[in-house]
Amino acid sequence: MHHLMHRHLGKVVAGAAIALTGTAAMAAITLPSDAGAADGTAGRNRPGAVGAPAPGRDQGPPPPPGIVEGARPQGERGRGRDPLTDDELRRAQDLALPRTPRGAAADVTGRPGPERLTTDLAELAPSEVALADPPRRALVSFYDYKSDSYLTRTVNLTTSKVESTDTQHGVQPPPSHAEAVEAARLLIAAPLGSGLRQDYRDATGRDLTGPDPLSVTGFVYRGRAEGEAPGALGDCGEHRCIRLFTKVKNGRWIDTRRFVIDLSARTVARLG
């Protein structure tokens, strides 16, 4: 009996030791990262120790709130391979915009002027790479829905001149956000958009009358270049055709990938 009690007492003591060890481990984990020292005296109330102060000790005023610094002001002009500044972006887009008669070009909604796509810093010529202050150029791209053409212009921001212009047909760069939103608007209004409207109502309990409640991302559909393109899809590739990833803002995804929106003809078709 004495032997059994001794064994039981041993288990109790061992269990208590394990419990204490576990408590110490938890305390070590929950202490602030700066509450220790390299000499193994972490958590002790020694002079100069960093950690919990002794009871009644004045802890001093709380630290001041953090301050978020604003972005540094941009100059009007970047240098070398710096990204284009806001001022350079505006100048490049204004200089590159084709000066054509009203109605000679159209954007995705049919308004005068081509649809602006991208504005990027242009590459330097090999002879300019070693220059201390090389010229700054921007490559600006547009899509003209009047002629279904892809237009790129190189603008020299140092001289404020358009140095080159290239126009291509049958070239379909990735769509802009504005084009994806317009594609969603056409799909919502089309008879084929009834499934999208019903899915939105099922998800939210509200009617879908426009693209604002949706988050949309567009990707190009090139028609026959991607395989079979029956019926109304046969012009895609020459026309500007878009498919969509569609999501309720702060909500669920709605699968619209099988629909093709021809932004040039402003029609909607379905794959398969």
UniProtKB/TrEMBL annotation:
Alphabetically sorted, this entry's keywords are: Signal
Bias regions of kind Basic and acidic residues — which residues?
A: 74-93
Query: Any stretches that span the bilayer, and where are they?
Result: none
Which SUPFAM superfamilies does this entry report, sorted A to Z? Amine oxidase N-terminal region (SSF54416)
**Top-level division of the source organism's lineage:** Bacteria
Q: Where is the signal peptide?
A: 1-27
Which Gene3D superfamilies does this entry report, sorted A to Z? 3.10.450.40
- Region described as Disordered: 38-114
Official protein name in the record: Tat pathway signal sequence domain protein
State the taxonomy lineage: Bacteria, Bacillati, Actinomycetota, Actinomycetes, Kitasatosporales
